[in-house]
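Quick one:
INPUT:
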């Protein structure tokens, strides 16, 4: 098995694991042999099914199980051997082109590393104390966000300011074809948000990626583009509207409080 780390920035990396047949083939064959006396295939007596038919019927499922065991164990040992000080747990990256039918299987895990820093306790430093004040507006806004999060989506025909819009971002030249659900408040420039107002399902809105957000890294999630190209990305993307939803806010009652408590746990 080949394992390597690819740095994204000072505290974010990706562990890339390439699993070859020699890492799992022996255990898969062993499991298939154990399955043969119990295998049932129409036209054959129990225990008399040819090995190639047993492998055809059960082999892929066994392969998935064994590869997952190999990957989980190798990932744990690698983190321990490299003495990685992680923030949270490794997050698997989704690869839409992944196929279990391939011989060599590539798995990627995003990890966050605890930053290293030095604290000089002998130096004279000014310490700033911040006092956080939760005013009525801040509290009311947070309550509305919670009500919306647990609310009921209501289909709409025309885009308005507070609606959620589902659609697909497309730029053929850059290989972008990503379905996303957005709210107009995510955009850095209100002029961009205004382009969507009044649009209907099936309409296409073209926006430019430069300065779309305060932090260009948001484009990575929205358009599924790589970290190497996201900074200063300056292209037009077409967004085809597929559905428009308003939200019926959840009532402030015991049911909502119970759902919040379960989520917090």
């Amino acid at each position: 098995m080949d394992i390597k780390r690819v740095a994204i920035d000072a505290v974010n990396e990706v562990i890339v694991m390439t699993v070859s047949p020699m890492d799992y083939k022996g255990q898969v064959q062993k499991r298939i042999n154990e399955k043969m006396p119990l295998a049932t295939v129409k036209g054959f007596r129990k225990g008399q099914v040819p090995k190639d038919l047993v492998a055809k019927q059960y082999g892929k499922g066994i392969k998935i199980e064994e590869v997952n065991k190999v990957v989980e164990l190798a990932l744990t040992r690698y983190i321990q051997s490299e003495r990685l000080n992680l923030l949270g747990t490794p997050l698997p990256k989704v690869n839409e082109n992944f196929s279990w039918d391939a011989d060599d299987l590539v798995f990627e895990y995003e990890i966050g590393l605890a930053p290293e820093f030095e604290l000089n306790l002998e130096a004279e430093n000014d310490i700033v104390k911040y006092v956080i004040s939760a005013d009525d507006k801040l509290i009311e806004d947070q309550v509305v966000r919670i009500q919306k999060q647990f609310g009921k989506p209501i289909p709409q025909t025309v885009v308005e300011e507070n609606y959620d819009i589902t659609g697909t971002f497309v730029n053929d030249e850059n290989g972008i074809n990503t379905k996303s659900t957005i709210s107009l408040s995510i955009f850095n420039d209100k002029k961009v948000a205004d382009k969507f107002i009044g649009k209907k399902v099936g309409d296409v809105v073209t926006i430019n990626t430069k300065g779309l957000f305060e932090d260009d890294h948001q484009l990575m999630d929205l358009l599924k583009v790589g970290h190497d190209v996201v900074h200063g990305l300056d292209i037009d993307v077409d967004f085809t509207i597929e559905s428009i939803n308003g939200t019926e806010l959840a009532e402030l009652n015991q049911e909502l409080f119970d759902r919040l408590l379960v989520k917090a746990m």
